[in-house]
Amino acid sequence: MRLLAALLFAGAALLRPAAAQTSIPAPTLDAVRARGHLICGTAPNLPGFAAVDGRGEWAGLYVDVCRAVAAAVFGDASRVRYVATTTQNRLPMLQTGEIDILASNTTWTLTREASLGLEFTGVTFYDGQGFLVRRSLGVTSARQLAGATVCVQPGTTTELNLADYFRRNAMQLTPLVIDTLEEVRSAFLSGRCDAYTIGRAALAAFRAGLGGQADEFVLLPEVISKEPLGPVVRKGDQRWFDLVRWSGFAPLLAEEFGITSSNVEARLNDPDPEVQRFLGRSGGFGTILGVRDDWAFQIVRQVGNYAESWDRNVTPLGLDRGVNRLWTDGGIHYPPPAR
């Protein structure tokens, strides 16, 4: 009898996951709702990832992360206030609560997650560090940069990777450490350094933005690091972590299902039970996350799936998706199932 009672109790618990979750404290979600908008910290001047476009609006792959969270919380992807961050202030601003989420060119590392009271919710973009040089320098490999002056920002994984690469290859390095991205780029263009190093996507975006001068610069073939870049939140607020994490998975799942911003309404009637759960027609998953059950539907309708975001923002830079493709297409994006 005791065993039967235990089994019945366990079965009943499985049938009411939403009720069990509603009591979880949600201080960040409550604060965002009360304020009426999300505060998103992001790096400025990264075309394709985070920048103000010609219409004066923020746009980019990282910007779409915050738009997706706002769509999930409010049913309105526009309810975001963007705060331009630097490599020096971005993590302290998140720690002190000045921003609700950091969606920037920030690498997921052990020290950042284990010692700063912060937590990465997933990976938006898989990148790797590279080098940009003037074609006239005649350099075709990073191994030819011994003794070079390299422009780099302080307090970044980029700076550490640069020092490690030169030390590992017994090469002499003269780093030119400059605080802001704009000043780093100006120093490079003015010839104060031989090479400019950061993530290869940012280098490609910078070169593409040079217009007619782009052919004067060469992106060297070496990739000297792993740079998984994704949203960061404060530790200790599990409800907010879950919501931001699944707002990142939603565009990937939508791409898996073949759901786009243009067909999402028609797919509400799709008989596939997994699609029904994903779009909020069954399952009550929004309730579990603390938002409306149509949270994923709103993300896809207003922001699009991951491929749409990529094509809108990154494809114009001439970057191939590479490892950022879905696992079904030879990439490593592998979102957990919505069930």
Automatic annotation (TrEMBL):
Signal peptide coordinates: 1-20
InterPro entries xrefs: Bact_solute-bind_prot3, Solute-binding_3/MltF_N
Keyword Transport part of the UniProt annotation: yes
Chain ranges of the Solute-binding protein family 3/N-terminal domain: 37-267
The entry's keywords: Signal, Transport
Highest taxon above the source species: Bacteria
Gene3D superfamilies found in the cross-reference section: Periplasmic binding protein-like II (3.40.190.10)
Family to which the UniProt record says this protein belongs: Belongs to the bacterial solute-binding protein 3 family.
Protein known as: Amino acid ABC transporter substrate-binding protein
